[in-house]
User: What shape does this take?
Amino acid sequence: MFHVVMPYAIVYVANEGSEGVMSAPQHQLPIVVAGVYEGKDDIAARVRLNGFGHGSLAMN
Assistant: This one.
């Protein structure tokens, strides 16, 4: 599904699901992610670290 809509997008906003986060860079889309549970803070850190976009910070 992502490959159908991403060519029309200018940014990818998500709850940090891995499929969308992996698809967005393939379409050269910046990513905004916001999620804290189930390892999603780790995905946000990887998005930030690799320069793909902005990720949420865990609130502990």
Remarks:
- Residues 40-49 form the longest helix (10 residues).
- Helices lie at 2-5, 18-26, 40-49.
- The mean pLDDT is 78.
- The first strand starts at residue 12 and ends at 14.
